[in-house]
Amino acid sequence: MNDDGWVPPQVLLAVDLVILTLRESRMHVLLVERGVEPFRGVRALPGGFLGHVDEDLLDAAHRELAEEAGLTADHVHLEQLGVYGAPGRDPRGRVVSVAYLAIAPRLPEPVAGTDALEAGWTPVDAVLSGGERLAFDHRRIVSDGVERARSKLESTALATAFCGPLFTIAELQGVYEAVWSVRLDPRNFYRKVQSVDGFIEPVGPRRKPEVGRPARLFRAGAHKTLRPPMTRPVDSTDEKAVEA
Amino acid sequence: MNDDGWVPPQVLLAVDLVILTLRESRMHVLLVERGVEPFRGVRALPGGFLGHVDEDLLDAAHRELAEEAGLTADHVHLEQLGVYGAPGRDPRGRVVSVAYLAIAPRLPEPVAGTDALEAGWTPVDAVLSGGERLAFDHRRIVSDGVERARSKLESTALATAFCGPLFTIAELQGVYEAVWSVRLDPRNFYRKVQSVDGFIEPVGPRRKPEVGRPARLFRAGAHKTLRPPMTRPVDSTDEKAVEA
DNA sequence: AGAATAGTGTCTTTTAGACAGTATGGG
DNA sequence: CCCATACTGTCTAAAAGACACTATTCT
């Protein structure tokens, strides 16, 4: 910024994606096996470098979403998660990664990557508990993404992003239960979710299940922020702090 | 990432700071007048390019905090706000900016900048209403920062960052009133704020004011997240959406 | 005593939590 | 008729909102 001959350093910019979805009532994250060094053969978040100098960051995220996950922008929630730029995080040099959080409804299996040997949905518990080793600082990024999702379920309509365009209340409850790892009372959930203004709106038809009474269908309402918020049950696994 | 001769593009990385504080019961943001092109003479957020290739992002934020605002890390809350990387945002080329949100208690006036002609606290309303023109996309960044602060006041102990290490309950209420632009009932606020576990803890002495009964002093508690959260009164200025 | 600010108590309304019964489809 | 799932009520406990009084310091 000065005229004394100093020039600011340049960095490589990467975009990484934390794509979350629900499978068998558990939260999964999409991981791809790296085909090149560094961390060849280790699983990592889908992502890559900026395509060209003039590519917008959000466009790059959409491009990776399509290339590595085969997901089109339709019905996929995408938001910026944060920047990860610790100096030593990439052995190739100074690489700063912009992480995006994507929430997708359960989709048909196919996930074919271009520059990834293998792509697959992995339960987030397996990643967070350390059972699965990830490249770079991607475990931390996954952890932050999951925490973001958990938190935004309280105050925003993010849960609807895990569902298709039409969903039942029981489905929506399943989202909350899976992401928060809790059990909720269906009766109180019905009452609560329908009392929050603009959260969900009923649509005509009903869904015919294999067995049991057909359920009413809803779609996401107009309000993105929930007032009052959905309340997460107190987890008995909370930390106490010392008094000085 | 491939071996076909393509090399990923490099970008310039900047760090910008949204520093918020309270002055005369109003939220202010620190702006500096730019001494060089582009936007010479226009006010902008304090910030600058990465010092060297191996500088950590958070370190860079702390450095700018000291250089441009004269603030040491003590008693200053600093968190990442987001990345701003639209292709055309900087006429000098592809500059990606990592924005940090800083919350500081009211401090002695002096704010002496190095590469800024003039630095000063500006009411955020003046910035957000467009009364003050800012360089680059900095008005948007300020807007995001303010919104982040407003939101986190509900669910975290961020309000204590606006106060010094010791504060009274009335002071804390003033923070909520200023940031949210609302009036709160002192009696309900006293009850509420003391019932939230780990939010504030009493310390021995009392503060002697110029007039009136001395107030008890508190300090920030151990818990960073508030359960249950502080509830923001419903603003009558909320948007409605159409029904399809 | 009076002014000014700090702090406490009570009542009412709303919301959350726990729990049981009825309704509607397909065999 | 039985099963499985969808939905509706009711009671109770806790929290939020509205409001009035007492307490402590200084001049």
UniProtKB/TrEMBL annotation, chains A, B:
Species of the source: Virgisporangium aliadipatigenens
Keyword Disulfide bond set for record: no
Tree of life domain: Bacteria
Segments of skewed composition (Basic and acidic residues): 235-244
Keyword field: Hydrolase
Entry GO MF terms: hydrolase activity
InterPro entries listed in its UniProt record: NUDIX_hydrolase-like_dom_sf, NUDIX_hydrolase_dom, WH-like_DNA-bd_sf, WH_DNA-bd_sf, WHD_NrtR
Designated name of the protein: NUDIX hydrolase
Coiled-coil regions listed in the entry: none
Pfam family name, one: NUDIX
Disordered as annotated region, ranges: 219-244
Residues annotated as domain Nudix hydrolase: 12-148
SUPFAM superfamilies: Nudix (SSF55811), Winged helix' DNA-binding domain (SSF46785)
